[in-house]
Backbone:
């Protein structure tokens, strides 16, 4: 069976007849349709390229690919990250600068102007006391580190027992063993406080040891002479030499009481001896008279030595100047306590003055 085409006039398959081709309907003019006769429009059909038809709408076409869009987004993120990083850096720099400035101001403001080792706000007086003790601690450590350089172990014991002697002991290995003059002002009627370990005479050899350890007798005599005569011609070192020359340097106290006899005249002094008790001590102690006492070990201090009693106070106590102990010299004493520490009282006066011994029992 042949096939046919409506347009080509071919036989349709299965049909033995040739189908007559229909004539084409003209493009224009009337035609007969289902709804009657109508006139064809001359307007081109949709999709025709000729004549007027439906207008094409203008549209913006974005030819950027997805990859380009992602790159633009990444670029914006990078810029934002850089800006954020710059802001953070500026903040860190600003904060660090402020912290350093504040720390510097705080440090400057919080430092003790007298001694940086002491906290700010501590009074000047306390700061100086702390500074003294801190300095002594440093010196004591120095002494301990060089302990093998001290031929006399008594100097090490002195540094441990008397803080005021630490400076002298620390300097002793390098110090001169020659005596120096006493150049401080001296006034008659006023007794200066002298100590055996003074750098001007403490290193001088006396009684087989440094005078700092054995010189209480010469030092007490030097104080008495300066107060009685008002001059410093005789120092602890020169009096120590006089005692040594007389062969009276030694004993528990470093000076024999025998030196207080005729030997004193060479120093412009005289002395009278009395039994040591509170009544004698207070009666003999008068203007122009000082009392020299050899006190036993374990009384005023641990060791036997010489002290000078210079005045009676309004409350009946007495003033004691101890050349081996600032602590003993720092407060007044009961007369009976001082008298009980010694066997004899030696009243010292200027050689041309009356001894005033008539009122006491010799």
Residues:
């Amino acid at each position: 069976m042949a096939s046919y085409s409506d347009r080509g006039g071919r036989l349709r398959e299965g049909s033995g007849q040739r189908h007559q081709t229909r004539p084409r309907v003209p493009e224009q003019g009337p035609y007969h349709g289902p709804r009657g006769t109508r006139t064809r429009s001359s307007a081109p059909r949709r999709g025709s390229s000729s004549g007027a038809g439906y207008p094409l709408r203008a549209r913006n076409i974005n030819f950027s690919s997805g990859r380009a869009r992602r790159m633009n987004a990444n670029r914006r993120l990078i810029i934002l990250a850089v800006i954020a990083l710059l802001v953070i850096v500026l903040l860190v720099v600003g904060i660090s600068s402020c912290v350093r400035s504040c720390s510097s101001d705080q440090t400057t403001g919080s430092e003790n102007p007298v001694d940086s080792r002491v906290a700010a706000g501590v009074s000047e007086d306390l700061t100086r006391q702390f500074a003294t003790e801190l300095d002594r601690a440093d010196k004591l450590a120095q002494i301990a580190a060089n302990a093998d350089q001290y031929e006399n172990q008594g100097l090490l014991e002195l540094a441990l027992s008397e803080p005021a002697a630490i400076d002298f002991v620390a300097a002793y290995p390098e110090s001169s063993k020659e005596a120096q003059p006493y150049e401080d002002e001296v006034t008659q009627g006023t007794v200066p406080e002298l100590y055996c370990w003074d750098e001007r005479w403490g290193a001088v050899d006396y009684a087989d040891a440094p005078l700092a350890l054995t010189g209480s007798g010469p030092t007490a005599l030097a104080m008495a002479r300066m107060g009685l005569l008002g001059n410093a011609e005789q120092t602890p070192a020169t009096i120590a030499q006089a005692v040594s020359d007389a062969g009276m340097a030694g004993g528990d106290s470093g000076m024999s009481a025998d030196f207080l006899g005729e030997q004193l005249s060479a120093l412009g002094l005289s002395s009278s001896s009395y039994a040591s008790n509170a009544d004698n001590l207070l009666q003999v102690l008068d203007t122009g008279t000082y009392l020299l006492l050899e006190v036993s070990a374990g009384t005023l201090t641990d060791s036997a030595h010489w002290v000078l009693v210079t005045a009676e106070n309004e409350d009946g106590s007495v003033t004691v100047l101890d050349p081996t102990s600032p602590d003993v010299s720092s407060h007044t004493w009961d007369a009976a306590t001082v008298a009980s520490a010694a066997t004899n009282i030696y009243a010292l006066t200027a050689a041309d003055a009356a001894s005033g011994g008539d009122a006491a029992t010799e």
